[in-house]
Amino acid sequence: MRSPVEFIRRSLHPVVFGIWTYAMLHLLLSLRYAAFLRPEFGFLLAAAHFIAFGFMGASLAPGRTLPSDMSTMLRVMVLLLPVLYLTIMPGDLFLGYNAFQKRFVGPAGAAAARQNQAGPPAPGMDQPAGPSGDGGERLDEQAAGPIEITLRELALTPDLYQGKRVAFTGMFFRDGDLKMHFGGRDTAVYRFLMTCCAADAMPLAVAVDAGQSAPSRNDQWVRVEGTFRIEEIDGISVPIVEEAVVDPVETPEMPYLY
Amino acid sequence: MSSPGRFPARDFLLAFFLAVAVFFLPVKDGSGAFGSLAIVFVSIVFEAIPFMFVGALIGGLLEEFVSRERLTALLPRRGWLTVCVAQMAFMLTGPMFDLKLLLMYRSVFRNRAIVVLASLVLVAVLAVSSAFVFMDGLGP
Predict the structure, then answer these.
(1) Is the Cβ pair A85, B18 closer than 8 Å?
(2) Do A35 and B106 touch (CB under 8 A)?
(3) Which of A30-34, A121-125, A139-143, A236-240 is predicted least confidently?
(4) Strands A202-208 and A236-248
(5) How many pairs of residues across A and B have Cβ atoms under 8 Å apart?
(6) FRET label pair with B42: which of A67, A79, B19, B66, CA 20 to 30 Å apart?
């Protein structure tokens, strides 16, 4: 009969790769990986899943053991740490106002987003009636009501929506620090635009003149409907939605823009 | 090399890292600092893990199926030349493994052959600019 130490030595390798295999499969099937990476990079995660599966199979071969000392155990725990984070992290946890405060560099940041986002949005992602493709016709079609749009579209082609009534979803944020960016306005609605992974996601924000209709809680998902306008403040184009009606909504399936 | 019974410095670092990481586990804090930290940490790991696994796989295949003698025979005999060859190999493949560069290439060029060519041009530009700086003593 095998001793527990021997069992641990034999099973450490397959267990580590097995856990990683399962974690990546779960992320892929549930599409939860899109909370961390651009959806196009799913194939890389799929490749990693198959390689991890292969490693697990190879480590099941007889005679393969690991030392069971403290050093090995620590390394195993470090390797499993991201999976532990993933397990404990609530499923609805996304970058919020804290990351917004750290990363927001003012409305001029939208210009950088324009340079990074030369291509179309990822397939299957948020693709509202934007200006890409048949956008012009769609704008005419929707002239009666607000134009359903994303903050990405507003950041990429703000001139197209100047003076028009638009509607979009984002996260509500009210803070005194916003006043210096938005010409004295302290309320904005923002959403993160992911270029590569969540580590480089940048917030796209629009100032909102909402009055008393705005919710009081930061990071509440809202639908904003109002008239879009670009105001020149100290030489910077500041996007503003005036006469805005702000209504709380459910968190969208894909909270980030890509 | 650590003697038996002693706790090596490397293990102290690992244990410290683990303790800090467990302390920052996003158990309570939603969209606050801990939550952001956890998301960024996990996203960087998931961005890197495919390349780590591919690297480990290629390294394992080389280790198992290519003898050291054969590998050594493929490399120049002079040490500094070997370093240059290894550096060039990294420079040729490195940019292709950068997700941001891949996205940039894709958005600029639709043709795959041009993407490969563009990465080679980038590598060439890097090599020439590095040579220019170091050979002419323009560096600090």
Answers:
(1) no
(2) no
(3) A121-125
(4) parallel
(5) 134
(6) A67
| A114-126: pLDDT as tens digits | 555 544 444 444 4
Residue A90 exposed, middle or buried by CB count within 10 Å (0-12, 13-18, 19+): exposed
Q: Which amino acid, A95?
A: L
The answer to whether the CB of A219 falls within 8 A of the CB of A175 is: no
Three-state DSSP class for A122? Answer: coil
> And the tokens for B6?
């002693």
Closest C-alpha among A128, A185, A190, A191 to residue A161: A128
Tens digits of residue pLDDT in B93-118: 665 555 555 555 555 555 556 556 66
What is the rounded CA–CA span in Å between residue B93 and residue B97?
A: 7
Predicted TM-score of the model (pTM): 0.72
CB contact under 8 A, B46 and A85: no
CB-nearest to B36 from A27, A95, A196 is: A95
